[in-house]
Design brief:
The complex is a heterodimer of chains A (1001) and B (477). Chain A is α/β, with parallel strands linked by helices and 1001 residues long. In chain A, the strands form eight sheets. Chain A has a ten-stranded mixed β-sheet. In chain A, strands 13-12-21-20-19-18-15-14 form an eight-stranded parallel β-sheet. In chain A, strands 3-5-7-8 form a four-stranded parallel β-sheet, with helices on both faces. In chain A, strand 7 (127-131), helix 5 and strand 8 (151-153) form a beta-alpha-beta unit. In chain B, strand 12 (355-361) and strand 13 (368-377) form a beta hairpin. Chain B starts with 5 loop residues before the first helix and ends in a 7-residue tail after the last helix. The chains are: A alpha/beta (1001), B alpha/beta (477).
Chain lengths: 1001, 477
Amino acid sequence: MSLVSMIGPRPNLLGHDAGTHKRLEVSQPILTDKGLAKIRSVEAALDGAFRTETIDMTWDAETGAEGLEMAIKEMCWAATEAVLADKNILILSDRAQGPDRIPMPALLATAAVHHHLVRQGLRMQTGLVVETGEAREVQHFCALAGYGAEAINPYLAFETIEEMRVRKNFPITAEEAAKNYVYAVGKGIRKVMSKMGISTYQSYCGAQIFDAVGLSSAFVEKYFTGTATTIEGAGLLEIAEETVRRHAAAYGDNPIYASMLDVGGIYGSRVRGEEHAWTSTNIGLLQHAVRGNVPEKYKEFAATINDQSARMLTIRGLMEFVPAAEPIDIGEVEPASEIVKRFATGAMSYGSISWEAHTTLAAAMNSIGGKSNTGEGGEDPIRFTPMPDGRNLRSAIKQVASGRFGVTTEYLVNADDIQIKMAQGAKPGEGGQLPGHKVDKIIGKTRHSTPGVGLISPPPHHDIYSIEDLAQLIHDLKNVNPGSRVSVKLVSEVGVGTVAAGVSKARADHVTISGYEGGTGASPLTSLTHAGSPWEIGLAETQQTLLLNNVRSRICVQADGGLRTGRDVAVAALLGADEFGFATAPLIAAGCIMMRKCHLNTCPVGVATQDPVLRARFTGQPEHVINYFFFVAEELRAIMAELGFRTVSEMVGRVDKLNMKKAISHWKAKGVDLSKILYQAPMGDSPSLNWSGTQDHGLENALDNALIEASAAALEKGAAVRIEKPIINVNRTVGAMLSGEVAKRYGHEGLPDNTIYITLTGVAGQSFGAWLAHGVTLDLTGDANDYVGKGLSGGRVIVRQPGHVNRDPLSNIIVGNTVLYGAISGEAFFNGVGGERFAVRNSGAIAVVEGCGDHGCEYMTGGVVMVLGKTGRNFAAGMSGGVAYVFDEDGQFDKLCNHAMVDLIKVSPEADEEEGAGRPQQRTVSVNDLGMGDMLRHDAERIRVLLERHHLHTGSTRARALLDDWDNTVTKFVKVMPRDYAKALKQMEAERIEAASVAAE
Amino acid sequence: MGKETGFLELDRKDRTYGPIDERLKSYKEFIVPLPAEALKDQASRCMNCGVPHCHTGCPVNNIIPDWNHLVYENDFRNALEVLHSTNNFPEFTGRICPAPCEAACTLNIIDQPVTIKSIECAIVDKGWQEGWITPKIPAKKTGKSVAVVGSGPAGLACAQQLARAGHSVTVFEKNDRVGGLMRYGIPDFKMEKHLINRRAAQMEAEGVVFKTSIEVGVSVSVNSLKENFDAVVFAGGSEDARRLDIPGAELPSVRLAMEFLTQQNKRNAGDDELRAAPRGSLTATGKHVIVIGGGDTGSDCVGTSNRQGAASVTQLEIMPKPPEHENKAMSWPFWPLKLRTSTSHEEGCERDWAVLTRRVVGDNDVQGLECVRVEWKDGKMHEVEGSEFTLQADLILLAMGFVGPRKAGMISQSAVDLDARGNVKADTEQYQTSDERIWACGDMRRGQSLVVWAIREGRQCARAVDLALMGASDLPR
């Protein structure tokens, strides 16, 4: 990624002067005061190549709020004049602010000038720099950049830091303090850019990747041209008024603001600050209600959320129900016990929350017929069967996130729903992160990773780069467990409807529209406040788009993110949700008190911590969660009766039962218009407004049906079977359904090695050998498409060249891209070159390949990869565990490897004397021990074993040749060792020795 | 949050008290402040909760996490600024508030709340000591005038806020010194009265005029206030004490707690006996004292009686003995009902619960008190048959709470509406009474309550008055 920004004009590339002009390059866009001064003086330094003009973005306080519009006009005219006067760097500045001059909101001023110049055709003739006291947080800089700022000088931030540095005696220089700030902001900007899939600041600049929530379209069209705004709202005058009020607070007579302003309360509630839905009072009320099973207290709690006459917090708070002409008796409404089956808890992983909290939610949901969610990070198999005391701790929804941690075949066959997390409402575009100190032994085991090593989920799924890829993943998962629904979790935003329609066409059974309100405990601060949208917007758009495309009835729609009360559920149902997800509220019922310390491992109530001392403080019981959901359902029933609905099904999508509140008197909210959300799309051919059909997954065409039939003896009795078949590329996901059958019967352990041996000839379709279980070997002569061995769970995949062809395996690509993505265990031998992202996020499989494309072993956390030929660039990026051996014949590997997290170690030909945790073995021992021995030692032995295995399975001539020239071979291998992994292994070794000596005493 | 793991490493350690035998010899405060280092440690235990329950638990919404952090950083000056932004008189609350903030503290779930009250007190004491607390004289005067009746915490807070907003404020106090119940109801050993004088001096410098020994409704009429001021605020407290309606209650040594406490406070202030006790001295010296009423005032009577050298002190409460430990699951973060033992109790007294008094025994004066035990079922009280007993008594002090503001005088003269409980009727948004020129706040509006609630009401009422007078207000609610 790059933060390089180019300031100054962009002349016509095709013009006569193309290529002769100068552009000012800064390595990153945050300018210190000194940096900005340099730009101001660059005219003299560079013979007049750059000519700056400072344009004032403050206005006369005397003119008040009404004065802003004219002031913006004048500012824009000044910009035009400057550009016409041949000035080619405009500096918008609010330095002139003071008691008599009000600074315009910097974003408004920047966007106004940017779009004004665009409209006049002058924007490319000048650079735009913003000098503002307003920008201080990452979002501020990103928004300024998004609307055209090529560089930003946040002078007040620097002054504040300097004041703090002096007052608090920070042991650093002023320059260092400023540098640290610039570095942090830069990192934040990169993080935001990465969420949006943009790699360079130059692409981000002016790209306006934002939705507006609560701004009038006339205002947006004028100043933020092209930005989407769904619910209308404030215009220039309201924004001006707010600005005037801020100015008055700063320069008025109010004694409490004489030397400091309020802190704002965005991140933690403060008096005189931002309102938050969860307050001390309603947390207390809810907890007392569920602990004592006191409906009255629940009603008090719900009133604090539902009554938004004083505190306006949500879009649904601005809606009201249209009661039925004749309400029905509540006795006619379906019972709460039916309604709660539509409820699910949110995706919070065991790891982010404690064992106690996670199992409490699961036990509660299982006992009422709802569903709990594993979250990202697998599930301990002990939970797949009921506990001796009868509690069922199995999470019905198994999440498949980009990290694929713990996504084994066994995990998938134990699902009722398999949820593909495309994104998370609370932090869209970001992968989860579990810091190393939260990865204890059990969590490491559940996630099939190394304790103590932090786990980063990559932002994207590496097997999803298009909607077709998503369809493929849905198909893969459906194959592993045909009985489960496959769900896709999306984040609410403008445009999500189109994605949801695609998801439905890609044959997902279920889609989740996740709003931004929810689960913000551990979200990074940049995601907390400005990422994602309310679910009302996304859900309404989803319902409308699905109906317009005739794909509504075949998919179940779930809303989640900040649902708290029965009223919330009612609104979600009327807007089109069949099911409802809750995360924070049930967690609060179980004892969470919204500390927002989830990332620190210091949760004082034992919810979001792995510290045994703190976990002991957890007091939640499944009954608390159950009580909560029944309270919600009962509240919903009363609303249903009032609206005349007997079942939730009847209610889904009935937007005609919702109105915007008539009397909204709040000065900022009164311009809101919900008609786009409350639009009733025509039903078209759709038989219903709700989920009433099924998807056609085409599983009957799978090759696996025949394989399962032929494997009956193995599945039933464990008898060895041999199968031979031709294969062509319409045979996708071969081996997955069969492996699902194995895992259902034999769990993760699977069958003994080679029990089912399938010999195939031809070209395999995508996802060959996906989630292949232990005991199944796929031996393919031919080649295979992308995603070979995805999620490999102990099986063996062999792909070799046909004997009769004369290709050089070292340059012949035999398997496609993204091979072994998320592999857990098993072996893969490829008698040729693999594509890009070979073994990405491998957490335990061993693989030998004769060459690979770019980004090999990216994000790998475990297992062993051996490359016998050339690798591409960026090898081992983000690799935190496992080892790789690369045969570095020409000494080029050092340049191709990404050294950020790994060390390259020469392999010693000498055998290690100490045994350590064991020596490599000729054969795998079990699904949990592939016979690789102590990873800190025995490299030469391990390489030899791998070469021999590779030769055995594929007949590779390369392997033979290397073995034959062993003394030379061994010296040319380079070991790629992640530093954190080595540290964790040494730590474990120390513990092992300690334990042994204790035992000896 | 000075330290992320502070709460895991450090235990709660609060201010200590002087030894009982020493403190019984005087009426001085006996709290030993925490040393600087210990204070910093205690501040570091604050976890800066995402939802700061203390912040809501505190009636004036003290921004506790922020000043805890500043104290951890040794930045007392800014801590004071933040503290004063929500609380006019932290030196009062830092001494006599029962600290609902600490009940709401997350660490109170395990009975280890942050020592919020001690930190608050340390911040403001240091502020005074360093001379940081100076008058905040308004830049501009509004030309509007406000009369505040009553100089208890509500009246003082209201007056200070209004003066700082630029209004000319006159405070009327019927007693000879300002402070209301804080002055004469609360013993010096809990809060020394020079603290009130110091604040009053600050307020005078800010332009507040105090008129003491003037009782509105008696020596000056409500109408004359309405004529001479743009707004009138009633902050006269809830002074109508609940009486004991049993045979013998008319005997001379059955007295109101407030009379007893006031006399001692006046003596401590240096008044001679004639001024301190115009209706005759009332002391516990050498007497068997019975205090009826188990609340804070009762506890103050216990402490004062012991200092005067009572032969014995017994405190009776009609309600059953509350549990020693509350059920946290059903109480936190709210104020729990639990057994509270004050420093005065520790100094020596008998306490008894679920006791109903039947008759004061004695011919010319009190000789004993006849009582009976009661049981409470579903909120109803039943006498326990055969449980009658008689206590020896020379002095009976009545500390059974207050039923509402005194109606005679000011209230009846103003003819403002009262609510069902007999308090002056006004809501907590406008604080305006049925007379649109009169506002009401504090105990006079809400009934007997805490000093901290009075400060809250005074501040909020000031904003409402400012808004009404000016059309807009910068004052915080």
